Amino acid sequence: MDGKLIIFSAPSGAGKTTIVRHLLTKYGDKIAFSISASTRAPRDGEVNGRDYYFISQAEFLHRIAKKEFIEFEEVYAGTFYGTLRTEVDRIWASGKHVIFDIDVEGGLHLKRKFGDRALAVFVQPPSLEVLKQRLYGRGTDSDEKLTERVAKAEKELGYAGQFDVILHNDDLDVACREAERLMLDFIEKKD
Predict the structure, then answer these.
(1) Residue pLDDT, tens place only, 172-189
(2) Structural domain containing residue 150
(3) For residue 71, which of 60, 102, 107, 175 sits 20 to 30 Å off, Cα-Cα?
(4) Please, which residues bridge with residue 8 across strands?
(5) H-run or E-run covering 66
(6) How many domains does the chain have?
């Protein structure tokens, strides 16, 4: 099987994680989640090796030097995220396609690297104001971190046109159904 990549990117709070979880629940026989590596601390309930590979900044930089990442970003000052080459290889070896829940710049890096083997979907929130409400409603970040996330989101919204598809998340059920259609059309398409 020629493995493909389905990339869901969006500003924090746009709903990409919820959509990806929906797809994994419904189509776990076809797709598997690429677990990213990160230097940030785990949030309550997050598990190393399930949600992220939580590693130190020193180890992350060492792995960059060894070219173990397909892509990586310093998403926030001193906080790195990246996709390990071994993750993609592991999923493809299992006969499944890889699905990503990844920041906007990381998603664009993957799309550039894999071209037609990748479908890059930008999850568009209803508005920046709704996005702010979602982020503040989570209650997981400090005011300083929230300000940083909102500023980053404003910038990321400008990248939407560089993706293959813009998926509007005004209504989560509708967005999930559309995500299913997009993904299935892509993985069932013969090259």
Answers:
(1) 999 999 999 999 999 998
(2) 5-188
(3) 175
(4) 101, 121
(5) none
(6) 1
